[in-house]
Amino acid sequence: MTEVSFSKSFLAALDGRPIKLSPDHVEDPKTYQARSAYILPKMPKAMSKRKGTSVAPGQERSLVVTVKSLRNPPLDLRLSSQTLNTSIHDVKISVSKETGIPEDKIKILHKKKPIPDSKVLKDLVGDDDITVEFSVMVMGGAAAAAIKPDAKPEVAQGLSGADVLQTPQFWDDLHGFFLQRIRDEQLATDLTNTFQQAWKAKG
Fold it and tell me: How far is CA 145 from the centre of its chain?
């Protein structure tokens, strides 16, 4: 019943007011309810003042950048004396020079989140940090083809050329290849025999 009584009194109060306000309507300030001034609460921790960024040349703070990857290829690179204005693109160039992986196949992550090339180190570290650690993700299978610039290709040892075809291991490997692709034992055997007989007839 309390809600009903309130509704009736509210509707009765509305009936006593004009439906539309006139263009020259002015509210009497004396009818306003008195309100106290609102004071903002104090912050739990005082804001620290920004430190001055102007330093003498040669005294800029440098960072040690660590780049790691637990996947293929495993990486653990340490780039020292990196300025705060070093970009992520510069870091990718350094990683590319060390690993031989193309720059466009390298993605740099910080705290498991990818970082755009336009970011610089000062955007990712605090005022007192002297080190920063990144992880690397290699895209498109470039890790399998990556070799270091100073690495020498391995030279195959053993038989080569036509001598390889005289060994039973070659024909066993060929048979295994056919069997893996065709998945038919009889057909794989027939193909292997056909190739072997054709080679012997040529000799």
Answer: 21
pLDDT 10s digit of each residue in the chain, 203 long?
578 888 888 888 877 776 676 778 787 878 777 777 778 888 777 776 665 555 555 566 788 888 887 666 677 888 888 888 899 999 989 888 888 888 888 888 888 888 888 889 888 888 888 888 988 888 765 555 554 445 455 555 667 777 888 888 888 888 888 887 887 888 989 999 998 888 888 86
Rounded Cα distance, 62 and 132, in Å: 11
Tokens of 185: 């034992």
Q: Alpha-carbon distance 169 to 158, whole Å?
A: 13
Residue whose token pair is 């955007």: 123
Residues 95 and 109: beta-carbon distance below 8 Å: no
